[in-house]
Amino acid sequence: MESINQNISRNLKQIRKERTLTLDDLAEISGVSKSMLGEIERGSTNPTILVLWKIADGLKIPLTRLIDDEELDYNLVRAAQHKTVSQNDQYNISSIFPYREPSKSEILTLEIKSHGSLGNSGHRHGVEETILVLDGEIELKLNDETIRLQKGDAIRFKGHLKHQVYNPNPQNAHLLNILNYL
Predict the structure, then answer these.
(1) Angle at which helices 49-59 and 34-42 pack, to 10 degrees?
(2) Statement: the pTM of the whole predicted model exceeds 0.85
């Protein structure tokens, strides 16, 4: 299994070449500098989650398409093999099943730490997002509405809506996050 930076390097080069984009073209559509994109393609930098989101949004692809391993006939993922996508003192995001054709979906786990939050200004149109609370409680803010979810509760919503997950409790909350690209 390759490191996540090797995957990002390989996949970004492949996608860019398939679309016959130059680094300048990709910089223009993503808002990420040409020099940073070059470093990412060479595998000489560890890009932040925000940089990866910009690239994915610019290319109109799921984030996990950038970190995905090479495609296999089947994909068994043991708990120890979940790939950390992003982590900080507010949350941890791990990929269980990265984006794959033809399902056009990806499955992530989210750990929202005590009093932590994770927000998104909205994905591109055509993304449907599902959140299942595995453990704990959260408050999900969709645009201006706040919805409280407890263990076992699930919600499906249009991913282009501005959304934020907040954990108001002293215990961490664990969520399953499924993104479908329609």
Answers:
(1) 100
(2) no
